[in-house]
Amino acid sequence: MRFRILLLVIAALSVRADIRDCGCDASKPETLDARNCSLCREALKQPADKDVFFLKDNNPTKPDRWLALPREHYSSTSPLAAMTPAERAGFWDAAIAKARDLWGDEWAIAMNGDLSRTQCHPHVHIGKLLPGNESDSGIFVASPEQIPVPPDGAGLWFHPQGSRLHVHEGAQINETVLMR
Ligand SMILES: [Zn+2]
Ligand SMILES: [Zn+2]
């Protein structure tokens, strides 16, 4: 019984640990002290002429990971849908260039869904694709501007296949396809 209560508490905490109640407001600096606003603080340090910036993942258990982030906040939920098509294409172009620099053709880029992000500022993960994740599901696109916006706050991951990109969308947790 006590174990069951503990499980309920853990479930409640993990439901709370998403980004649907973000309070990060750059015009009210005190709101940015919240733990889930730490990437917003990084975004505010970036020069205004930079639309996309990169951070090494600060989790010591993920030493080979990088993050790509838009400087602008857009929206904590469904941020890709809040970008214009041109902004989204620019964001993906920059993230892919960084991924290629790091991993040649072995890269993948993964974005977790709204229920599986704990940071309010939009961000995607860049890493080396782990073997065993490929499947026939997903769609092929010819260029970054054709990468779909996943519906309902879902995430996506994609990787190069020949001259095309193979996009797997719909899952909430996607960064696990990447080497830590
Ligand atoms: Zn932000
Ligand atoms: Zn694939």
| Rg, alpha carbons | 17 Å
* Helix content percent band: 25-40%
Shape, per Cα inertia axes:
globular
Percentage of residues in DSSP E strands:
15-25%
Number of H- or I-type helical stretches:
4
At the fold tier of CATH, the topology name is: HIT family, subunit A
Regions with little confidence, pLDDT below 50 for 5+ residues: 9-15
Biggest sheet descriptor: 7 strands, antiparallel
N-C termini distance = 36 Å
State the CATH architecture. 2-Layer Sandwich
**Strand line-up of the largest beta sheet:** 1-2-4-3-6-7-5
Q: What top-tier CATH class fits best?
A: Alpha Beta
Tally of DSSP β-strands: 7
Order of helices and strands: HHEEHHEEEEE
Average pLDDT level: 92
The small-molecule ligands in this entry are: zinc ion
Number of domains: 1
SS-based structural class?
alpha+beta
Structure description:
The protein has a single domain (2-177), classed as HIT family, subunit A. The protein is 25% helix and 19% strand. The chain contains four helices and seven strands. The protein has helices at residues 2-16, 38-44, 79-82, 85-103, and strands at residues 52-56, 66-70, 107-111, 124-128, 139-141, 156-161, 164-169. A hairpin with a 2-residue loop joins β6 (156-161) and β7 (164-169). The N and C termini lie far apart (36 Å). The model is unreliable at 9-15 (pLDDT under 50). Bound molecules: zinc ion (2 copies). One zinc ion binds at residues 24, 40, 43, 73, 120-121.
